[in-house]
Amino acid sequence: MARKNNIKQKVGEYCALDTKIKELQSRQKQIRAELEEIPLASGTYYGEYDGQKYELVVTENERVEYDPVKVAMRMPKKELVKVIRITSAIKNFFLPTELNKLIKKVTTYYQYRVK
Known about the structure:
Blueprint lengths: L1 H36 L5 E7 L2 E7 L9 H7 L2 H7 L12 H6 L14
């Protein structure tokens, strides 16, 4: 019975932490949006909250998205397979029996979702 109570306590604590994290992430997102309105240039900024001093380092980055059709047309097939990334959308193009033949590896993982 003690083990069952311990599980109940751990599940409750996990869910409570999950809720708190979501609240904190929501607030962090709000503050980030406010900072982006300023906007901050790349550099280090200093702040203070509840007597604690903090540093925020802002860096400007770029994310490049390549046109997959153009890449596939210009890149040798032998090299293309080294950089291609297959997503679960592949399920839309093959029958389940065909899809099973294409599997390289299956990894099991657990997902925790709080309701």
